[in-house]
Amino acid sequence: MTSVQVEQHGNTPGEGTRGEGGEGYHRTLGARQIQMIAIGGAIGTGLFLGAGKAISKAGPSLILAYAIAGLVIFFIMRALGELLMYRPVSGSFSDYAREFLGPFWGYVTGWTYWLFWVVTGITEVTAAAQYMAYWTHDSFPQWAYALIFTVILYGANLISVKLFGELEFWFSMVKVTAIVGMILICAGILTIGFSDAADTATVSNLWNDGGFFPQGIGGTLMTLQIVMFAFLAVELVGVTAGESKDPEKTLPKAINTVPWRIAVFYVGALIMILSVVPWTHFQPGVSPFVAAFERMGLGVGAAIVNFVVLTAALSSCNSGMYSTGRMLRDLALNGQGPKFFTRLTKSGTPLIGTTFSAALMLVGVWINYIAPGKAFDYVVSFATISGMWAWIMILVCQIRYRAKADRGELPQSSFRAPGAPWTSWFALLFIGMVIVMMGADKDARVSLYCAPLWGLLLGLSYLFLKFRNPRGAAFTKAS
């Protein structure tokens, strides 16, 4: 889309002919699928597995950490929603960075978000292979599961975006059903008093054993990077903008459900679990859901949770396959990536971009082959900092857009973020605090070491781009 076309069509969501999006994609994702993509993006292995470590560090105060972080996520999503209703495009994050901050920032954002999903895809397919060992007891090699899952999800993403949406719908349905089921079981124990946990189940467990802040405020703050990691991918709904049937209606509705999703699936679930099982019973590396089921005397719970986290991992890998191809195509359309990434299949999927990304995800299969016990640790550290870069760009671009719109230089969005730009500034400060906390944590610090190296690589490659293709380094709006 040229700069002239942006001015003509920038505020007309759903523009396109023959059911196509503005970038040539087919608008086939319906409201049902967009809603579940939005819900699934906010529920992942960070809740089902990572919360065990966070509970051991913060105790019941983790509930407050999730509530505050959830509010920040809502500010980020409303900022994204304002931008999406101004101009809904599939390469949204890099596209907005390119328009409001300049071509270099669009280049950095596009490639960083692409790398985020490649890395995440590797970690999640590795995790999925590890979860399968629960049933096979290592009788089947871990690398083979990683290969099978990668190939299946790659094939599904090439068939059509509608199939991707259906997979995400059912993956998300499994996660939602599991959490709601856990909440109902815990509510039954607290009110009716069945199961082995009935004798000790009480709401006072939230402040017994050292109080609500048993590890102090510092312990709660140190869990923020774990909490924010759990919310990574919530912004994925923005990547679907170019393929939504009715983005002006479906996207705002999906974004506005963020508060109750976080209130129910994170805050609500943790309140119920920590009321039934004292926080001192949870350990790092053990799912709080598994620990709760065992405390209740429900042995089948471990198998159920293992199936749920398997679907969560596959859902994340599926999202990675989807988003990486779109990001590479957006970069190519703007002269900031190889031109062959622009090609679409007849069904409207970016064939070469998805294939290239899936091939890199096969690195995860190789890692599983040479070091199955350490594969997850090798690649997980970079995901948090690269994922939060997209949030930072969303907030900065929304601040710049709102200033221009208020001056009359750009049309006002039909979905303005309440309280902005102050809410966006607050979210930026919060993310900055999380990054500082990551620097203070020796386990998370490695991701901060990787970020400057990646930034240097992008800077050098951008200089090469300016030399080889000045056109790609001069764009300020999506082409």
Explain what this protein looks like in three dimensions:
The protein has 479 residues and is mostly helical. It has a single domain, classed as Amino acid/polyamine transporter I (Up-down Bundle), CATH 1.20.1740. It contains 21 helices and no strands. It has helices at residues 3-9, 31-41, 45-48, 50-58, 62-86, 92-100, 103-136, 142-159, 161-191, 216-221, 224-231, 247-256, 258-276, 288-296, 300-333, 351-361, 363-370, 375-379, 383-406, 422-440, 445-468. The protein is globular. The N and C termini lie close together (4 Å).
List the helices and strands and how they pair.
Blueprint: H1 3-9, H2 31-41, H3 45-48, H4 50-58, H5 62-86, H6 92-100, H7 103-136, H8 142-159, H9 161-191, H10 216-221, H11 224-231, H12 247-256, H13 258-276, H14 288-296, H15 300-333, H16 351-361, H17 363-370, H18 375-379, H19 383-406, H20 422-440, H21 445-468
Order of helices and strands: HHHHHHHHHHHHHHHHHHHHH
What's the helix count?
Answer: 21
CATH top level assignment: Mainly Alpha
- CATH topology heading: Amino acid/polyamine transporter I
Using the alpha-carbon principal axes, give the shape. globular
Instruction: Please report which band the strand proportion falls in: under 5%, 5-15%, 15-25%, 25-35%, 35-45% or over 45%.
Output: under 5%
The main sheet comes to: none
Helix content: 55-70%
What does the radius of gyration come to?
22 Å
CATH superfamily: Amino acid/polyamine transporter I
Q: Termini, distance in Å?
A: 4 Å
Q: Give the number of DSSP strands.
A: 0
Q: Could you name the ranges where pLDDT drops below 50 across 5 or more consecutive residues?
A: 1-22
